[in-house]
Design brief:
The complex is a heterodimer of chains A (323) and B (566). Chain A is mainly α and 323 residues long. Helix content of chain A is 76%, strand content 0%. The radius of gyration of chain A is 24 Å and the shape is globular. With 566 residues, chain B is α+β, with helices and mostly antiparallel strands. Chain B contains 16 helices and 23 strands. In chain B, the strands form 7 sheets. Chain B has a 6-stranded mixed sheet. In chain B, helix 11 links the parallel strand 19 and strand 20 (419-425). The chains are: A mainly alpha (323), B alpha+beta (566).
């Protein structure tokens, strides 16, 4: 197991290194730089921009910049953000908790809803309800994040005013609320972005879960359980579901990078100050260090998700452990 | 207070002015009495972009400007009517006077003025600020507008003197309003080449009536009342700028009351929101115009004339072939008007009576025929000596208005037998190619200020010949330069007007561009907010004096200041 983990960690480190190097190269090769990103900036004399580039070391050969970047990275330092004071890691550290809160909530909701719906469908496979739920989940799974986010915003914030439209907390009232009030305020702001991500995630998970259960339900041990007089409900929830969870649990680890990708759009629509929104703004402004940092975070999620999926798979399936 | 600011101040007028100023100084210099009923409340304003920095010389976005104007002060504030030559209220300076030859203005700072860290504001801060704005390495984007100020000196600790190279109409405007004064003691040691990322830009300390409370990146910027301000505390407890970049979220946040005030430029959004019972709409004057700019020279080769657009006849034909009124109405409804030249109607020297090229598609076709661009039988694109009349228009994809309009323009010109290729590029590439003059035609846009001094940078011969100049279309006409110089050198706006008119007539007749539209924005504001000092050029200038009546306050208006503001 240790050898397995060490090997996966080494692979992960290589993936992160490659992702960091590629993002460094791509972002530097893309047209423009941090000082030529807005249309207004055209009125700033090019000689001034050249001086700024020199001050931040952007006039040096790309290879030199790359090795300097690697040196900083080896010391755990991404370098300064070019568009705001302080290191890029501070900007990322400000944004990551909000994204983790959103992704964590969405992940839990996705799995609870997805497993529930998938199991419900499998229990009545082929029925009208199963077909209807299958069609709905297919439609939801194929919706673009930004579209679903905009629709939920219009329905629940604009039309019915059930939830706030944007932000993490109420900009004025939050600090003056009681602890319970603050929690409620945070949950109300979390509702729509988390619902968007979890609806999209749960639609896919439900389809996986249904298929996995349908694979398990015809097996001998289920037939034996039924023959012993176990009720259908117990057969489904205690015997079948446990065995059918393996592919879904593997999906848990792999969902992390997908969720992060979705968060980029959802955070934009709901003005949620997380990693996705920061990365989008940084890319638009060519804030190299923040873009690279956000890419590294994404790569870390992919690696961690992959390792987590393997570990969970091994935890629930003794055959994998034995291998 | 309305006073005549100009070189022709007579002794009599000067003494009258002094009296007026003394009265004004009382209201400005002394703390204003606090009306307990008026004090309190919070307003939330939409910011459509996350500010990069709040350091005044490096501000480029309107949101940055609105926020910085609450934290920092100029020496004087343009009055509600926005007359550049005679309509000012005291800012950091509570009075001012002209030297006898009108080449110097003496500003007497309010002796009670303090920075938000408690240190007194000194004349040396004014001198330092001028040095900062004019240092090329800092990168103030309108640095050329300060070129006629020779220097700034500190006569004593509270008297700053602006020395000018010559007399002109907008001397006072340049000195009093262009510079937001910054503290020397906090910025003197900052390396100037890296000011863009200085900590001060995110934790600014000014002398304005609001100070920075909390900046949550990508979410909000909270300004709180500076209760110890020498002008008196502002009526409002706080102003929060909510960063809302998504076009769907903005109308929702306004409708649900999460946002109290927003500047709206989308006609659809404006139509929907102006009918909301809680909102009041106010149209703002336009300071933005967009145009199809022709390159008079070959792309990237300044030495050679452009194969197509060096010909004024072809430029006229393109202009005549576009029904600009229809294009603008269909795109913007009431939020834009047809542009008449390199100006907007809100500029005091603009002249909307100047003859422009009207829509005449038949005339355009005849003109093209006469130029040799004829339509061969069975073809849809005109040709001259076998060369098709085909050109590309560079358009930035980040401007949705320009991206939509160019399609309609493309179709209009197709009917005339011109093949237009839309060369849509991202913002970075657009800026790079514009700067390199790498285009035949570009759909460009400009933001202008009340003064027309900026025209020199964009349209003069010198700017065209400077490789780093901003005259991207290589337009050259010494007559235009001469008229513009005369207008800028005039002693007052009345005498500048005829010269400006001639300058505009010259450039419009030369057709260096097809002037397409001037956009207007509308400010939508919650009705409980009672604004005063809505300056025509900057609706945000008087926020510190705005109030919310106690009876109309919402729960968020009653939060109060959580900690003593200073």
């Amino acid at each position: 197991m240790r050898r397995f983990l060490a090997r996966r960690l080494a692979h992960g480190a290589a993936v992160i290194f490659i992702a960091a190097s590629l993002s460094f190269l791509l972002v530097h090769l893309a047209p423009g730089d941090p000082f030529s990103t807005t249309l207004d900036s055209v009125s700033i004399n090019p000689s001034v921009k050249a001086a700024w580039r020199a001050a931040y070391g952007l006039d040096r050969p790309l290879l030199e910049q790359y090795f300097r970047f690697l040196g900083q990275l080896a010391r755990g330092n991404l370098g300064p953000s070019l568009l705001q004071p302080g290191p890029a890691s501070t900007a990322l550290a400000d944004a990551v908790p909000n994204t983790l809160l959103l992704m964590g909530t969405a992940l839990v909701l996705s799995f609870v809803i997805g497993i529930g719906v998938g199991s419900w469908q499998a229990a009545r496979a082929g029925s009208r309800g199963d077909r209807a739920a299958g069609n709905v989940s297919l439609v939801v799974a194929s919706l673009p994040e930004f579209w679903l986010a905009a629709v939920l915003l219009l329905v629940f914030a604009y039309r019915f005013r059930v939830f706030p439209a944007a932000g993490v907390v109420d900009l004025v009232m939050h600090d003056s609320l009681s602890p319970a009030g603050r929690l409620l305020d945070r949950l109300r702001h979390l509702a729509l972005p988390a619902l968007t991500l979890s609806l999209l995630g749960s639609a896919s998970i439900a389809r996986y879960q249904r298929a996995a259960l349908l694979d398990v339900l015809p097996q001998d041990f289920i037939r034996t359980a039924r023959a012993k007089g176990v009720t259908d409900r117990l057969v489904l929830w205690r015997h079948a579901l446990r065995n059918a969870l393996v592919p879904t649990i593997v999906l848990l680890g792999l969902s992390l990078p997908t969720l992060l990708g979705g968060a980029v759009f959802v955070e934009q629509v709901f003005s949620w100050p997380g990693l996705g929104r920061l990365a989008a703004a940084a890319f638009h402004a060519r804030d190299y260090q923040v873009v690279i940092g956000a890419t590294i975070m994404g790569a870390v999620l992919v690696v961690v998700g992959g390792i987590l999926a393997d570990l969970l798979h091994a935890a629930v399936d003794p055959r994998v452990r034995a291998q | 207070m309305r006073e005549w600011i100009g070189p022709r101040i007579s002794v009599l007028l000067a003494s009258t002015l002094a009296c007026t100023l003394a009265a004004a100084a009382c209201s400005a210099g002394e703390k204003q009495p606090v009306d307990a009923e008026a004090v309190g409340g919070s307003i939330v304003i939409a910011a459509q972009n996350e500010p990069r920095t709040l350091l005044p010389p490096l501000i480029t976005q309107i949101d940055e400007k609105i926020i910085a104007d609450q934290i920092f002060e100029p020496l004087a504030v343009l009055g509600d009517e926005g007359h550049l030559d005679h309509d000012y209220r005291p800012g950091l300076a509570d009075s001012w006077s002209w030297e006898s030859d009108s080449t110097a203005i003496v500003f007497h700072l309010n002796t009670k003025a303090r920075w938000q860290d408690g240190k007194p504001v000194r004349a040396s801060d004014v001198r330092f600020t001028f040095g900062l704005y004019t240092d090329s390495i800092v990168g103030f984007k309108d640095r050329s507008s300060l070129a006629r100020i020779d220097s700034v000196t500190a006569r004593d600790s509270v008297t700053a003197v602006f020395w000018f190279k010559n007399r002109y109409a907008e001397q006072f405007y340049d000195a009093a309003t262009r510079l937001l004064i910054v503290p020397e003691h906090l910025l003197a040691r900052e390396p100037r080449a890296t000011l863009l990322t200085s900590a001060f830009g995110r934790k600014p300390v000014g002398s304005g009536r609001f100070r920075l409370g909390k900046w949550t990146p990508n979410a909000s910027i909270e300004l709180v009342a500076d209760t110890a301000n020498y002008h008196g505390r502002p009526n409002l407890d706080r102003v929060v700028f909510a960063v809302t970049t998504d076009p769907t979220a903005l109308p929702t946040r306004i409708t649900t009351g999460e946002i109290d005030l927003a500047e709206v430029s989308s006609p659809v959004m404006f139509r929907t929101l102006k009918e909301q019972p809680d909102l009041r709409a106010r149209m703002n004057p336009s300071y933005d115009y967009s145009f199809l700019l022709f390159n008079a020279r070959k792309p990237r080769q300044r030495q050679q004339p452009n194969a197509l657009f060096a010909d004024i006849g072809l430029r006229r034909a393109v202009s005549m072939g576009l029904d600009r009124a229809k294009l603008v109405r269909s795109q913007f409804d009431s939020l834009a008007v047809v542009s008449t030249g390199p100006m907007t109607r809100a500029q005091p020297l603009a002249d909307s009576t100047i003859a422009t090229i009207g829509y005449d598609s038949a005339g355009a076709a005849r003109l093209l025929d006469s130029l040799g661009w004829t339509l061969p039988a069975g073809k849809t694109v005109r040709e001259r000596r076998g060369q098709p009349l085909k050109f590309a228009v560079l358009v930035p994809t980040i401007s949705s208005n320009r991206m939509t309009l160019i399609v309609a323009i493309q179709e209009s010109l197709r009917k005339l037998g011109m093949e237009v290729v839309v060369d849509a590029v991202g913002g970075n590439t657009f800026v790079a190619r514009l700067g390199a003059r790498d285009f035949d035609v570009v759909f460009d846009g400009r933001h202008v200020e009340p003064s027309v001094a900026g025209l020199r940078a964009y349209w003069s011969v010198a700017s065209a010949r400077d490789a780093n100049g901003l005259n991207f279309g290589n337009y050259e006409n010494p007559r235009f330069d001469a008229h513009l110089d005369s207008a800028l050198a005039a002693r007052d706006l009345a005498s500048a007007r005829p010269h400006a008119k001639q300058a505009f007539e010259t450039i419009v007749a030369d057709v260096p561009a097809v002037w397409i539209y001037e956009t207007r924005t509308a400010t939508l504001m919650h009705k409980r907010i009672k604004p005063v000092h809505i300056v025509s050029t900057a609706w945000w200038a008087g926020i510190a004096d705005w109030s919310i009546p106690a009876a109309e306050r919402l729960p968020r208006d009653r939060v109060g200041l959580r900690v003593a503001s200073r």
